[in-house]
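fwd from M.: "can u put these together and see what the complex looks like"

so here's what she sent:
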Amino acid sequence: MLIFDFAEKFAKAPGPRTEKIGPNSGAKFREKFLEDWFKNNQAVEIDVSGTVMNFGPSFLSEAFGKMAKEYGKEKFYSIIHVKDEGKRNLKLKQLIDKHVDIALSK
Amino acid sequence: MFGFNDNDLILFFTIFGSLIAFLALIYAIFYNFSNDKKKLKKERKEFLKKLSSSVKKIKFNDLNTIKEEKLDDFRDEINFCELFDDQEKNYMKFSEKIDDDFYLLANEFCEQNFKVLKNNLLSTIRSFKY
């Protein structure tokens, strides 16, 4: 499984929904990383312990919610894993679950 | 005179008593439901007030690090609010919008635009239907 250090490879401070609003957006993260991982069936463990800011709901919905909607719950969780350690990772895990459920109920 | 015997009276009072107990139960359920609803409405109102207060606290002259901290706290508040379960989608849409609006506010460098964004954000929070 690929280990992805979010702060090192993407940003220390997750941004808003789109680049039009601000940098390091959910849309950019989806286009740059998530779409490739899903297309290549690459399982990933995301580690956000190096970030300095919480993820906002617009980022989560744009990045993870959209992927869950496109690929379904089973495939989503076969690809996306969050490191099971540290406050920021545990928070992200909880929020991703929430956004996946919301996206799939739409 | 009316032809009632003791058994009829016992039956009558048993049925009457059961009916009173049933109505009391219905009332208690309704009363609790109504109180829970009022309590939830009050908590939601307080939560939105708190959000407005967080928006009011961000100042144009705050250092960037302070603005980032405020955005961070604001995201925590909206991410982990559990008062809108039954209207989750509605709340999610709202929370995503105010997240982006707060982000724009925290990163605005023109004082006049900052004021406009702040007022718009406060107005969005005020007009949220819950």
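replying to her w this: The two ends of chain A are 30 Å apart (CA to CA).
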